[in-house]
Amino acid sequence: MLRRTLLRFKPTILTAAEALHDVKDGATIALGGFGFCGFPFELLEALNQKSTKQLTLIAGTTSGPEDGTGPLARDGQIAKIITSYVGENSVLSDRLFKGEFTIEFCPMGTLVDRLRAAGAGLPAFYTPTGYGTAVSEGRLPVRFAPGKSVRVAEYSHPRETRQFNGRWCTLEMALPADFAFVRAWKADKRGNLVFRGTTQNFNLASAKAAKVCIAEVEEIVECGELDPKTVHLPGVYVQRLVCPPNIKRVAEFVVERKPGSSTGTGKNAHASRNLIARRAALEIKDGMTLNLGIGIPNMVASYIPPDVDVVLQGENGLLGIGPYPLPEEVDPDITNAGKQTVTMSKSGASLFDSAESFSMIRGGHLDLTMLGALEVSGTGDIASWWVPGKVLKGMGGAMDLVMSGCRIVVLMEHTDKEGKPRVVESCSVPVTGSGVVDMLITELCTFRFVKHKGGINEMWLSELSEGVTVEEVKAKTSATFKVDPNLKTMPRVDPLPT
Fold first, then answer.
1. Where is the active site (predicted)?
2. Measuring CA to CA, which of 84, 131, 256, 474 is 20 to 30 A from 431?
3. Does residue 203 share a domain with residue 284?
4. Sheet holding 382-383, edge to edge
């Protein structure tokens, strides 16, 4: 249970430096934000200038190399980071690979719920997310060897597991923090916070998990000026307010669409990826609620036929994602889970935090998820988050999505850059989920997975791209598969107009 040390009626209004006066070496700090969206840049800059050391940071994502967590890693202030996604933060990942601090990878939905559990006084919980992967089996990287080898020197330990109603789950511990750094739009002098757009993300759960929450806000109003119905975070969770004169509001990836285009910037110079996206769009049916992952899946939105009405969901807290914005519509506070600028659907949208988003996912409220992958096995395993010795971005929300119970369609190119098969007998890199894939679409063909009782899955070749033969697919696939007797040519939606 959290124990706040001071009774108080109203939060204190301070400068960033004053608000951090008791943030000492060894502190654990939960950070709000999803990429740059809703990230407390001013507080992190003040922390960097304070030169506090041996910090443990908790963050859903790790922001950028030049701002936020990047300077803390550069200056040796981090002892440990708990996150689901290192992503594009080259400064932080470089220091991580040199063994300068430890890391605890955690699926994104699990991470936000560990924070939420801490704030709610719950010591632990069980979740199906991560079972049968490095999370439950104890093979997550914790520390890398010093130098340039990118060799893992320490792995995580196996987790306690338990079966509920025939489904295996992993035990996860609550994640309390000493401090939370969050960013909101408005606050009143009682600490009630209002957020804009998709900035609720990890801010709410982080604030609730901490003994002391420091909120960086754009505006402070008098008590009573906020409509109670608009308050997202009650003031009981907030101890200090900071209102910088020029608060930083920037988008990590500004993506725009051209005037006259209703579909956005979905085109990509890589022809094979467009072919995959055009086939995948046919799996989307009218009335669906779905999640489109980063990469090729994100391109599919541009090919959804205009007469198909669907609702797109993002892990950062938006149900009803619209097209990319026109240049004059760009708002850094409205982004998708890929941290790109978007708009909200004109046919209806709702905003919430990441805990709510993953409740939708884990609770089975989605109809379809499309994900990219590094490899897919012949039994429907998917690997998407780590190539040991090369790429390590983190699992993000993918482990939660593949365990959601909805239909899982994977979109990827059939071979890697060297021509090696990515459709394999068994995955050579750590998996995101085991036996979870329902369909695989590549530029060459479509596979469907037939799932039998007892956990035995079979992969069937059901469609061939025009001009592709079964022999070519076999030559470029190392997994065993069966050929559908009704094998047909792969259909696709029409290409986008030029």
1. 315 (5-glutamyl coenzyme a thioester intermediate)
2. 474
3. no
4. 382-383, 375-377, 423-424
CA distances for 377 relative to 58, 350, 401, 425, 496, angstroms: 33, 37, 18, 5, 32
% helix / strand / coil in the chain, to the nearest 5?
20, 30, 50
Position 265 in a domain: no
CA separation, residue 43 to residues 17, 119, 159 (Å)? 8, 21, 34
Q: Are residues 63 and 108 in the same domain?
A: yes
Tell me the pLDDT tens digit for each residue of 357-376: 999 999 999 999 999 999 99
SS3 115: helix
Number of domains in the chain: 2
pLDDT digits (tens, 9 = 90+) for 198-236: 999 999 999 999 999 999 999 999 999 999 999 999 999
User: Which residue stretches of 41-154 are H helix?
Assistant: 41-50, 69-74, 90-97, 108-119, 134-137
Return d(Cα 175, Cα 213) in angstroms, integer: 15
pTM flag (> 0.70): yes
Sign of CA dihedral 138, 140, 146, 150: positive
Whether 414 contacts 421, CB under 8 Å: yes
Element at 19 (helix H, strand E)? helix 16-19
Among all residues, which ones are annotated catalytic? 315
Q: Which helix (H) or strand (E) holds 398?
A: helix 398-402
Q: Which residues contact 453 (CB under 8 A, 6 or more apart)?
A: none
